[in-house]
# Entry
Amino acid sequence: MEKQTYNKIILIGIQPSKIHLGHILSIFTYMKYHKKKESIYCMIADFHKLSTSVNLYKNNQDMSNIFNICNNLNIKSYAQSLFNDVYFSLLMLIGNYCNINELDKIFKINYENNTDNNINKLLYPLIMLIDILLIQPCTVVISQDQIHNVRFIKKIIEKLKSLKINIDVDFEILDLKIISLYTEDKMSSSKENCGVIYLNDDMISIQDKIAQIPTQENMPQHSEDFQHPHLKQIYQLFAKMSNISLEELIDKYKDQKFSLFKINFATKIYKIIQEYKVKLPNDNKNEEDKDSKELESRVLWNADNIIEAFKTNNKI
# Structure
């Protein structure tokens, strides 16, 4: 098959769920300020979402929110389900190169204490591999908890070289852990009671949630004065959002009260969220159509090339 030339892509995935502050401060901020943002594709991982207990088909609004934010940021985006057929075809083919024991080992590491387990969780690394095979990005942005998946993916990519399927991809680890308001857990829509700020929260709702953050009797004067590790993390989060150091933030509020700290923290969060809710006029329809056609061409060509490689080597 004649070699095709496509632009280099940086691939980052996000599962369709209620957009919260954690998403905004990690994934969307990464995309907004990336020096090569024109190369980024945001993949809405609706197939990966099937590994959870959430009903995917009730999350159309969540997917729309992600598409809208990406559009506002001038980031190209697509959903895995746009390419249903090729995902299924490659799942059957690549599955022959996957050791079930290796998948089971990853499954046990990732979901050891999870009671809501299913076959989709077992297949998660395999679907992630197919994401890469279809797009063939130069870089995939991942979180720290996907390291085991990446090791598995690299093994399979190495095996596929015997079929002359050569994939050259780097992995960039992005710190996606934004703590919840009340615990040291990662902010997550599945842990609402831990304190989660959502994209659609108004100022009053944000202030009410911030008001419940546990504090201590005296304002910290130095970084060693925090009686609770979680409060220090809240300070670190506020400092990060304000683009100042922890020490500078401590110095700013050391002679104030926690009530003022919380009001200003809530105000800062609200302002940041509003930046991602502003709907910009879409006057790039022709450019969007061009991007969509290029993406479809890229995916289908890569899929056909992989299937042809299996046929040539008598694997199907």
